[in-house]
Amino acid sequence: MKKIAIFPGSFDPFTKGHEDIVLRGLGLFDEVIVAIGYNSQKHKRYFDIDVMVAYINQTFVGYDNIKVAVYNELTAELAKKYDAKFLLRGLRNTTDFEYENSIAQVNNYLNDDLESVFLITSPRFAAISSSIIREVHRYGGDTREFLPYEL
Ligand code: ADP
């Protein structure tokens, strides 16, 4: 059976750190679905969701085993729809770990078919976070070093 992993996140924006996790994920899974969680009530995005879908598609042009989805439901439910048995996430530091640990427990409770798999960040991408990139962009700084596409 095809091993499908969901890589869920806000991706506001999608960074080289995210790209690295997806490409390394292909070493483990047959297909990786980059799933952009969208909750209009929670917080307003900085980068438009449709624009980010286009950038992610552009990043992985030529890969037919990487897909992009937008969702507004529990990740555990989305995984069932795609028949995905794995949730792929990245870990940069202990703060990520604390957060990921609790989400993984809840996701496992919601869908016990789902295994969370964590990849440790590659050192060269460890400092990249979407929130820092939003700050740099907001004040007109150069973000090219951090993104796998040209804004
Ligand atoms: P969320 O809003 O769910 O935290 P993000 O879009 O910030 O989602 O990130 C999605 C996933 O990518 C998370 O597992 C996060 O830890 C991971 N991630 C973010 N930046 C990096 C990076 N530079 N290296 C490795 N993993 C990363």
What does this structure look like?
With 151 residues, this protein is of the alpha/beta class. It has a single domain, classed as HUPs (Rossmann fold), CATH 3.40.50. It is built from five helices and five strands. The protein has helices at 16-25, 49-59, 75-82, 94-110, 130-138, and strands spanning 4-9, 31-37, 66-71, 86-91, 115-120. A five-stranded parallel sheet has the order 3-2-1-4-5, sandwiched between helices. Strand 1, helix 1 (16-25) and strand 2 (31-37) form a beta-alpha-beta unit. The longest helix has 17 residues, at 94-110. The N and C termini lie far apart (38 Å). The mean pLDDT is 96. Bound molecules: adenosine-5'-diphosphate. Adenosine-5'-diphosphate (ADP) binds next to helix 1 and strand 4. Residues 9-11, 15, 17-18, 21, 89-90, 92, 96, 121, 125, 128-130 line the site of adenosine-5'-diphosphate (ADP).
Secondary-structure content class: alpha/beta
Name given to the CATH architecture: 3-Layer(aba) Sandwich
Approximate shape: globular
Helix content: 25-40%
Bound molecules: adenosine-5'-diphosphate
H-E string = EHEHEHEHEH
Can you tell me the number of structural domains?
Answer: 1
> What is the number of beta strands?
5
Spatial arrangement of strands, main beta sheet: 3-2-1-4-5
Oligomeric state of this protein: single chain
Q: What's the Cα radius of gyration?
A: 15 Å
| Main sheet makeup | 5 strands, parallel
What's the pLDDT, averaged over the residues?
96
Helices, by number, come to 5
Q: What distance lies between the first and last C-alpha atoms, to the nearest angstrom?
A: 38 Å
Low-confidence stretches: none
Under CATH, the homologous superfamily reads HUPs
- CATH topology name: Rossmann fold
Sheet-strand content, in percent, reads: 15-25%
The CATH first-level class comes to Alpha Beta
